[in-house]
Amino acid sequence: MDKKQLKTTQISTIGEFGLINQIASKFSLKNPSSLLGIGDDAAVIDIGNGKVQLVSTDILAEHIHFDLSFMPLMHLGYKAIAVNVSDIAAMNALAQQVTVSIALSSRFTVEAVDELYEGIKLACEDYKVDLVGGDTTSSASGLVISVSVLGIANKDQLSYRNGAQVGDIICVTGDLGAAYLGLKVLQREKEVFMGNPEMQPELTGFEYAIRRQLKPSARMDIIHDLAESKVIPTSMIDISDGLASELLHICKQSQVGAIITEENIPIDTDVYNSFVEFNMQPITAAINGGEDYELLFTLNAKDYEKISKHPDVAGIGLIKPKDDGVFLLSKQGNKYPIQAQGWNHFS
Amino acid sequence: MDKKQLKTTQISTIGEFGLINQIASKFSLKNPSSLLGIGDDAAVIDIGNGKVQLVSTDILAEHIHFDLSFMPLMHLGYKAIAVNVSDIAAMNALAQQVTVSIALSSRFTVEAVDELYEGIKLACEDYKVDLVGGDTTSSASGLVISVSVLGIANKDQLSYRNGAQVGDIICVTGDLGAAYLGLKVLQREKEVFMGNPEMQPELTGFEYAIRRQLKPSARMDIIHDLAESKVIPTSMIDISDGLASELLHICKQSQVGAIITEENIPIDTDVYNSFVEFNMQPITAAINGGEDYELLFTLNAKDYEKISKHPDVAGIGLIKPKDDGVFLLSKQGNKYPIQAQGWNHFS
After folding, report:
1. Mean pLDDT of A37-54
2. In this structure, are residues B166 and B298 in contact, taking their beta carbons and an 8 Å threshold?
C-alpha cells in the first residue's frame, strides 16, 4: 500500500506561507537567466546589458478574495490589474505588460465579461501597461482570475525584501487601514441587506474607505518620484497583507529587527474615527488590515533626507539589529511585539 | 435604468474564440516594447539587442480540462507545464521560466499539493525551465491551475501563425489522435467503474494512447532539431485543439488556403485500429481530436529538403492561394472542406 496515501494533512494546519515555503523548498533555479525565484514581490530574469525582466502573478478566487454581491465586476477587473502592477512597483520598477486568464461558470454572461474587461482596460490605461495575452475557460463554479505582470528594469535599480540595513529609516506611502474599513462596511451592509432586502445600504461617510477597498491604487507615482529624487530604497514590499506582516517579511529576509512608532503610522482621520465607532483599535486595524497596496520601504538616512518632504511618504520607524526584535512603540511609550496576523486564505 | 443590465448573452452563443476576439478588440498595444499581443501562441516583448521575451499563459479548471478521477495529480502537474512549454515551442523558441498559481478547495491536502508539484518539478526538469513564482489560494470549489511561461529568442528566429506562403510544405510532428483516444478510453472505463465499482479498468493495449493523454510531451526536441538544420518555419502553431482547427488558424492569419492529404497524416497503427474498433473514423478523430501537443508548421521547399528525412516530421500537404480554400484529400481522391470542430469549453 502506498504510504503517501495514508497521510492527510489539512492545508490550514501549515497555512498559505507554510505551503509556499514547502513548494519553494522543492525547486532550485538552474537557468543562468533566472536570477531570483520565489520569495520576493516578483521574480527577476536576466535579459542582458544590465537589464532584468520582472514577472509576478496573482490569482483571485470568488468567495475568497472578492464577493460579487458588493464588488462590481468593473472594479474587480481594475483591482486585479492594480494589485499585480503593485508587485512590480514593490521591486522599484515599472510594469509594462499583463496577461489575464479567467475561468468562469455559466452564470456569467458576455455582458458580465465585458464589464470585467472594462475595468481591466481602465487599469491598463492608468498604469500604462498592455494586455498582451491570456486564456479564457469555463469553470464548474464561480470566477477565478489569474493575472501575470511583466516589467523591465535596470538590475542595479531594484529593491529587494532582503536589503534593509540597521539604521535605515522605515517609510510607508499613503495611509493605512482604509481598505480594511471599506471591507468591513461593505460586509456589514451586506448582512443588513440579507436580513432585510428593503433596506438601503448606508455608505455615506465611508466613500474613501470603500473606494480604497473596491478600487485600490498601485503606487507607480511613488516609483517615478523615487527615481526623480535618485533614491533607491534598500528594501521594499507592497502592503497586501497588512503592514505588520510585510514588515516581518522585510525583517526576516534582511535579518534585522525594527521599531515603528504608533504616532507616525498614517491613518486617515475619518478612517480613524470610524474604527473607534466600530469599537476597533485604529492602530491594530491599520497595521493588520490588508489590501492597502501602499509601499513599505527602507532608506538610508542620506536618501531619506531627499524625500522626507514628500507629502505622501511617512517615516514610521527605524531598522534595528536582529536581536532587538520587531516592535511597535505606542503613543503611551509601551513596546508591543509585532506579530503577523495577515491573511490566511486557508484558515 | 442601465441598458447594459437588460441584455444577457450566454457565452456559449459566441464561444471561446468569439469571446477572445471580443476581448482582444477592446485592447491595443501602446508600449513600444509590446511587439505582439493576443492572437498567436505567445506574446512577444522587445528586450533590445535583437532579442525578444515570449510570454504565454494557460488556465486549467477541474471538470473542464481534467477529471481527477482518472488524472493523477502528478500527471496533471506535468501536463500543466508541458502545454505551456509547447506554446513557446510553437513560436520556435525555448521556454526558460514558469510561474504556477493554484486555487484549491479544502478537500485538497498538503500531500495532494505535494503530488501536483512533484509532476510540475519533473516537467521543469524535462524541459529545463525554472519555477520562479506563483500564488496559492483556496477556492470555493475544485482546483484551478494557471501557468505562465517565459522564453527568450532572437527576434528573427520566431515563427508566427501568419507567415505561411503559397507553395510552402505543411508539416506535422509525431502522430495524431492518440491523446483523444486516451481520453475516450479513460472516460469509458470511468463509466464502467461508476456502474460497477467491482470492475477493474481494462486499459491493456491502450498504454500509448493513455500516456499521450495523461503525460503529453512538448516538442522542444523539434525546436532544437530545426535550429541545428538552420531551418526557420514560415509559420507554426502547436496542436492543442486538433490539427483541423490549428490549420485553419494558420490559413486565416496567413490569408492562404491549404490542402492536406489523408494518406500522409501520421496516425499510430494501434491507435488507428482502436478508432476502427470504437466505430470512429480514424482520420476524423486524428485531425479533430485535441491535446496531442505536436507542432504544425510550414516550410519553404528548400528548407523542407533539409529535414524531410527527420523520422518524426511528416510532410502532409501544401499551402495554396486563399481562394482555393482549406481541404483534406481523402485516400479515395475526394476533397473535403476542413472545418473547425476543436474544443469549445463554453458549449
Report:
1. 95
2. no
Three-state DSSP state, B113 = helix
Report chain B residues whose CB lies below 8 A from the CB of A42: 133
State in words which class domain A3-157 has. Answer: alpha beta
Task: Give yes or no for a contact between B86 and A42, defined as CB atoms under 8 angstroms apart.
Answer: no
**Domain range A169-337, CATH architecture:** Alpha-Beta Complex (3.90)
Tell me if B130 and A13 make a contact (CB, 8 A cut-off). no
CA nearest A71: which of A149, A176, A182, A198? A182
Cβ separation A101–B47 shorter than 8 A: no
Q: Residue A20: its chain B contacts at CB < 8 A?
A: 136
The SS3 call for residue B268 is coil
Q: Where does residue B319 rank: exposed (0-12), middle (13-18), buried (19+ CB within 10 A)?
A: buried
Architecture of the domain delimited by B13-157: 2-Layer Sandwich (3.30)
Note the maximum CA span of chain B: 67
Q: What is the Cα Rg of chain B in Å?
A: 21
Q: Do B26 and A117 touch (CB under 8 A)?
A: yes
CA distance to partner chain B, nearest, from residue A300 (Å): 29
Chain B contact set for A49 (CB, 8 A): 48-49
Residue with cell 527615481: A227
Residue A286 to residue A309: CA distance in whole angstroms? 23
What are the residue ranges spanned by the domains of chain A?
Answer: 3-157, 169-337
pLDDT tens per residue, range A276-285:
999 999 999 9
Cβ atoms of A209 and A216 closer than 8 Å: no
**Against a cut of 0.95, is the pTM above it?**
no
Task: Quick: pLDDT tens for A71-126.
Answer: 999 999 999 999 999 999 999 999 999 999 999 999 999 999 999 999 999 999 99
What count of Cα atoms within 13 Å lies in the side-chain half-sphere of residue B110?
Answer: 19
